[in-house]
Structures are given as C-alpha cells and as structure tokens.
C-alpha cells in the first residue's frame, strides 16, 4: 500500500461516483492510498472517516491491500463504501466480526430548491430559539459533544473552517441544540452534516437549520451536497428540495481496538 502523491493518478477509479470523494480529488482535504502509484489498479480514499474503495477486486493482492488499511488510517471506526460487489466479500473476509453492513441513501446532485419555502422553515422557528453562524467557540464546543463531533470532521482547525466551510447552530437560550455544517468541502461545494440533541428532535429545528445553510450556499454559489445515513435523513432532504437517487450498501468497520 502506497500513499497517493498525485490525485489525478487515481481519478479514473472514482470517476462518476459520489461527491464525497471530491474533497480529496480536488486537492482540498483527505488522503488516499493505492497499490501502485504509476499504474494504480485499486485505491482507497479517506474523506473524513468515510473510506471509498475502488478498483479491480479480482486481483490476487486485493485482500492484502485492504488488510493494510488499519496501519495507515488513523480512525478507529470508519464507514466503508465499496465500488463493486467483489469488494463486499473482501471487506467481510478481512474484517470478520469487526464489520457490519448497512444501507445508506444517495441524493442526486440536482435539486428543486424553493428559496421562499426554505425561508418559511426558518420563520417557523419558535421565538425562544435562534440560528447563529458557527464561530470559533461553537466550533470548539462541537468537538466535545457526541451529537455534534462530526460537524467539522474533515477540518483540522477553525482557521481552515472559516476559510472554506459554512455552518449554523440553533441555540435554545445559550445552549446549542442543533447544527448544520460542512463536514468537508470541495471546489464549488460542501458536504452537509446535520444533527440535533436527542431531546430536541421532531421540533423542526433540523429543517430550519439546514434551510439556513442551504440558502447561504445558494447565495455564495456553492452546492450543498447531501448523502443520507438513514430514511429520516432522506425525508428531510426531500422536504428541503433534494431528489432521492438510490440506496446503496456500506459497512461500519472497526479498524482497531
């Protein structure tokens, strides 16, 4: 397994796939590994703990290639997304009881956004809640909470986030209870991460916060990409104007103890 030095060398292996690989392919963030830098036949992209696996899984060294991932990837747990069915078998073989297949849901890179409707979701926010932009204090706070720790997963510092990211938090009084933020960015877009404190769910907070983030993206001329971890996320995306694409298989993988 070799660290990829030039993203263009592996671009053909990920062409036409998820927007979630773009942060690396655009040279913005993330890392990647391949079996051969000059003639790559398989490759892995790590985008903020999402592991994208592509290439010819029928090659004799495919299993050994994947087995080396824990030695180079710093995450303990990852979401692994393979391209091609043969990789499924290899993942299950390599990681055994440390992997579990689940379903994610792709959202099309197109939309039916209605700015008036999005503003309406924000206007329905109860008066004791307020939406505020992510600042350094909220950035640091988010990293200490289980419910918000993934908001800035791909960013190494607030300075980097301030330059390339976008995000909003909903406060109940002075308490952060919901957020929508860019967990990664690429040229011309961001990948949205959204969550709400459990006790504050089903109050329209995620809808309002996401609507605020989408409107800001539209104002800045960047695309707010959305990939859903569950059907609740799909329903929220469609409510906001996104268009569902398809369900696909992913794996929750433990790389180390």
Structural summary, described in words:
The chain has 10 helices and 13 strands. It is 30% helix and 33% strand. It has helices at 11-14, 22-25, 62-67, 69-72, 85-95, 115-123, 136-142, 158-164, 205-220, 231-240, and strands at residues 2-3, 31-34, 42-47, 50-55, 77-82, 99-111, 129-133, 167-172, 175-186, 189-196, 223-225, 227-228, 242-254. The chain is α+β, with helices and mostly antiparallel strands.
Defining key terms:
8-stranded mixed β-sheet, alpha+beta, elongated, 257 residues
What distance separates the N and C termini? 22 Å
Net shape: elongated
Low-confidence stretches: none
The helix tally amounts to 10
Oligomeric assembly: single chain
Beta-strand fraction estimate: 25-35%
Range of helix content: 25-40%
Total count of strands: 13
Strand order of the largest sheet: 1-2-3-4-5-13-6-12
Q: What is the string of SSEs from the N terminus onward?
A: EHHEEEHHEHEHEHHEEEHEEHE
Main beta sheet: 8 strands, mixed
* Average pLDDT for all residues: 95
Instruction: Label the structural class.
Output: alpha+beta
What is Rg? Answer: 19 Å
């Amino acid at each position: 397994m070799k660290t990829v030095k030039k993203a263009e060398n592996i671009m053909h292996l990920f062409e036409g796939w998820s927007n979630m690989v773009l942060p690396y392919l655009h040279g913005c963030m993330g890392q990647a590994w391949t079996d051969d830098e000059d003639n790559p036949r398989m490759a892995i992209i790590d985008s903020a703990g999402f592991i994208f696996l592509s290439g010819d899984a029928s090659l004799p060294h495919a299993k050994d290639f994947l087995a080396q991932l824990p030695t180079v990837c710093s995450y303990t747990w990852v979401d692994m997304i393979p391209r091609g069915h043969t990789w499924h078998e290899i993942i299950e073989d390599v990681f055994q009881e440390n992997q579990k297949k689940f379903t994610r849901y792709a959202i099309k890179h197109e939309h039916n956004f209605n700015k008036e409707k999005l503003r309406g979701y924000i206007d329905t926010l109860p008066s004791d809640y307020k939406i505020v932009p992510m600042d350094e204090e909220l950035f640091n706070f988010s990293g200490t909470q289980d419910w918000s720790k993934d908001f800035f997963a791909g960013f190494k510092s607030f300075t980097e986030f301030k330059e390339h990211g976008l995000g909003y938090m909903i406060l109940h009084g002075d308490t952060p209870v919901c957020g929508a933020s860019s967990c990664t960015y690429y040229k011309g877009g961001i990948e949205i991460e959204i969550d709400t404190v459990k006790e504050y769910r089903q109050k329209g907070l995620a809808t309002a916060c996401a609507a605020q983030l989408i409107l800001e993206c539209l104002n800045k001329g960047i695309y707010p990409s959305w990939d859903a971890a569950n059907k609740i996320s799909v329903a929220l995306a469609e409510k906001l104007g996104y268009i569902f694409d398809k369900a696909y298989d992913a794996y929750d993988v433990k790389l180390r103890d």
